[in-house]
Specification:
The complex is a heterodimer of chains A (108) and B (127). Chain A has 108 residues and is an all-alpha fold. Chain A is 88% helix and 0% strand. Chain A has a single domain (3-105), classed as Fumarate reductase/succinate dehydrogenase, transmembrane subunit (3 helical TM bundles of succinate and fumarate reductases). Chain A has four helices and no strands. With 127 residues, chain B is mostly helical.
Chain lengths: 108, 127
């Protein structure tokens, strides 16, 4: 199996997992975005929320980094620029969810 | 080895169709969603700093601009959900006829507006 096929399969599997998580998150986001600190803290401190939100951001960044690297493939001709852009993209897709999950699991 | 893969031709040379509008909107909303998800990660992480630091964020989120951003994000998520579902159906071999692609494209465009209204009404406990 070549790399492009593997990438496509990962993209499709992650999108199937991501779709219900997006639905779950957007309904909850609309319900809490303008609430007080205590209400928002209560939402994010809930163990179900912690689990689902962690899954949501991991799959959102995984899916986005694969999708955006396809956009780079389509529109960037310079290989050096494309490689740097891809490395920054994959690095941010690891660091941002990781830091957020650490913060989330330290909430009381 | 030098990469000789062809680049996509510039989008301006194509005549606009429903499918091309949905396709470019899918990419744009995808980028909006990941930028928004990054801001949401910062928002969720900021809770660890305590309520005194939250006042500024709360002031922004309770303003008209905050409401506009929240509704805009609900539309952007709705568009991605419907458009990605359309992609998955096409990956399974459905909906390639010209007329069907137009209809499903319109379903994505108008359905995303309806879904946004539904998300807002249910999220805010109006229904």
């Amino acid at each position: 199996m070549n790399l492009a096929t593997k990438k496509w399969i990962f993209l499709k599997i992650s999108s199937i997992i991501l779709l219900p998580l997006m639905v779950w998150f957007i309904f909850n986001f609309i319900a809490i975005y303008d609430q007080s600190y205590e209400e928002v803290l209560k939402f994010f401190s809930n163990s179900t929320t912690k689990f689902l939100f962690s899954l949501f951001i991991v799959f959102a960044y995984f899916f986005s980094s694969l999708s955006i690297s396809e956009v780079f493939e389509d529109y960037i001709s310079n290989d050096k620029i494309k490689n740097v852009a891809n490395r920054l993209l994959f690095l941010s897709a690891i660091i941002i969810p990781l830091l957020t999950i650490i913060s989330l699991f330290n909430l009381n | 080895m030098e990469n000789r893969n062809p680049l996509s031709p510039h989008i301006q040379i194509y005549r606009w169709h429903i499918s091309s509008l949905v396709s470019i909107s899918h990419r744009i909303t995808g980028i909006i969603n990941i930028v928004a998800t990054t801001l949401i990660c910062i928002w969720a992480s900021s809770l660890i700093l305590g309520d005194t630091n939250y006042d500024f964020i709360n002031l922004f989120l309770t303003s008209i601009f905050g409401k506009f951003i929240a509704i805009g994000l609900a539309w952007s998520f709705s568009f991605q959900i419907l458009s990605e579902t359309r992609h998955l159906l096409m990956d399974m071999g459905y909906g390639f006829e010209l007329q069907t692609t137009r209809i499903t494209g319109l379903v994505v465009i108008f359905g995303s507006v309806l879904l946004t209204i539904l998300i807002y009404l249910i999220g805010r406990n109006f229904i």
